[in-house]
Amino acid sequence: MKQRINLYQVGLKPQQETLALSSLFGLLGLVLTVSLLVWGGLQWQQRQQIQVNKQAEQQLNQQQEQLGLLQQALLQRQPSKTLVSERDQLKRRVEQQIALQRYLLAQQVGADYAYSKVLQQLVDADINSVWLTRFKLRPGSSELQGLTIAPAAVPGWLESLRHFDYFKGQRFNELRLSQLPEQPAVQFHLIAEQRD
């Protein structure tokens, strides 16, 4: 049995792989080329992003300038002269209408007051046998229509009206009495005018 081994045999020696210097330079060149390409791509992408950012910043600045100019223009803008004159005319019309409405309201209140005074006077002169059915009151004249069951009471009633303020100075110049058919009541029509 063999107890020794000859390690100097060519088959037992480990094989050493050697890289040629030209291959090493080629590999190194390839790595360097790929690195340069990657770095160049990153630089190009960075320049593109910087350019996009600059354009966006320029647009933002332009829009801010336009906004400032528009705000200044709005502050300095004057209304149209025709619109101002139309507004003034409408304002004057509204003021005139308000003044007219106040005047008419005051006149109506005065007329209502005078009318209610006359009604109060008619109530004060009321007697049971005379009923007014219609009356017209105009400045300087009066027209009264009504019914009575005692025609002799009408002259006394007229005499009591002459003592009231509204009827003072008026002269009862026409009195018509007419009997209603199939009824005991008599219809009267009275016209009074202001004396000269």
A few lines on this structure:
With 196 residues, the chain is an alpha+beta fold. 55% of the residues lie in helices and 18% in strands.
CATH architecture of the largest domain, by name, is 2-Layer Sandwich
Strand order of the largest sheet: 1-2-4-3
Number of beta-strand segments? 4
Number of helices: 3
The assigned structural class equals: alpha+beta
Please, what is the average pLDDT?
81
- Could you say how many structural domains there are in total? 3
Overall 3D shape: rod-shaped
- Percent range for β-strand residues: 15-25%
**What CATH first level of the largest domain would be assigned?**
Alpha Beta
* CATH fold node name of the largest domain: Gyrase A, domain 2
- The rounded Rg comes to 60 Å
Distance between the termini: 180 Å
Helix percentage: 55-70%
- Secondary-structure element string: HHEEHEE
